[in-house]
């Protein structure tokens, strides 16, 4: 049984304060035992660019208000998925969310480590298409800058880190089973970048969604069992030390035939000067 895109998005609603169980739960993938499905615990100290997006007003306080992931791309900018800022996820327009914050340096969401930083501005890619999920990318401007040591380099167009077969890691505090078991501690799973042919075959269009090579990439594990899942959206996919993708969508979680689909960050045009290094690097 596969999970259509619309249901994948609805899964984020399962994080609402009422503590609703995912309304359309899918069977747990066979290999999912432990993001991130099939992952391992990691610490923010080793991956300082991973942040949690938080609103206790919208999502309750038990897990620090976490509802999506994000990644630090400049001291005062966090990149995330555009769909994370949608009314479908927030239940409000983003400008009406009173306490949108990022949490940096806090491995354990139930703890008080690291810092919480307010968001003063949001930018959603004008290329974003909520129907297809193409160009699923947004930027948050932070009220106070984070240390430069927390910034990850965004992979430029043509970066070899996008080559199929490259090992990548996805990070998040999302569902670890596909059944609404949200992690309180950060996890990462190792996946492989897949070829566009494989991604098109997995998502030819229709109920499961359509893979669009220009603005997406897909990654997974041929046996299944390792993947991002609900609540990981907006979080980073990292290869060769650079940011190549943002968790965007997928059918179910960790299913061998349905890899995770990510925003191809190099393909989305960013506001001029927003992300040092990223688009400049292409000109070197
Ligand atoms: N849309 C989901 C979210 O909002 C992410 C789903 C990713 N799914 C996957 N199988 N990789 O959190």
UniProtKB/TrEMBL annotation:
It is an enzyme of class 3 (hydrolase). It comes from the Bacteria. Pfam families: Trypsin. Residues 36-283 form the Peptidase S1 domain. Residues 1-32 form the signal peptide. The keyword Protease applies. It is found in: Secreted. Its main location: secreted. Keywords: Disulfide bond, Hydrolase, Protease, Secreted, Serine protease, Signal. Its EC number is 3.4.21.4. GO terms for biological process: proteolysis. GO terms for cellular component: extracellular space. This is Serine protease.
């Amino acid at each position: 049984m596969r999970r259509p895109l619309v249901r994948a998005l609805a899964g984020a609603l399962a994080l609402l304060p009422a503590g609703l169980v995912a309304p359309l739960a899918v069977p747990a993938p066979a290999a999912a035992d432990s993001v991130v499905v099939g992952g391992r615990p990691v610490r923010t100290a080793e991956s300082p660019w991973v942040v949690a997006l938080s609103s206790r007003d919208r999502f309750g306080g038990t897990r620090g208000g976490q509802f999506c992931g994000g990644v630090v791309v400049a001291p005062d900018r966090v990149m995330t998925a555009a769909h994370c800022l949608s009314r479908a996820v927030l239940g409000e327009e983003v400008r009406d969310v009173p306490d949108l914050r990022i949490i940096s340096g806090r491995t354990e969401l139930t703890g008080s480590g690291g810092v919480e930083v307010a968001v003063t501005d949001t930018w959603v890619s004008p290329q974003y298409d909520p129907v297809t999920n193409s160009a699923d990318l947004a930027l948050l401007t932070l009220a106070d800058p984070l240390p430069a040591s927390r910034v990850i380099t965004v992979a430029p167009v043509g970066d070899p880190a996008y080559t199929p077969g490259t090992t990548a890691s996805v990070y998040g505090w999302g569902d670890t089973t596909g059944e609404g078991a949200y992690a309180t501690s950060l996890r990462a799973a190792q996946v492989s970048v897949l070829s566009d042919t494989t991604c098109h075959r997995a998502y030819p269009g229709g109920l499961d969604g359509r893979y669009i090579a220009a603005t997406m990439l897909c990654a997974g594990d041929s046996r299944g069992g390792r993947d991002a899942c609900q609540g990981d959206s907006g979080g980073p996919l990292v290869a060769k030390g650079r940011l190549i993708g943002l968790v965007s969508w997928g059918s179910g979680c960790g299913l061998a035939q349905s890899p995770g689909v990510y925003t191809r960050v190099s393909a989305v045009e960013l506001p001029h000067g927003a992300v040092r290094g990223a688009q400049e690097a292409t000109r070197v």
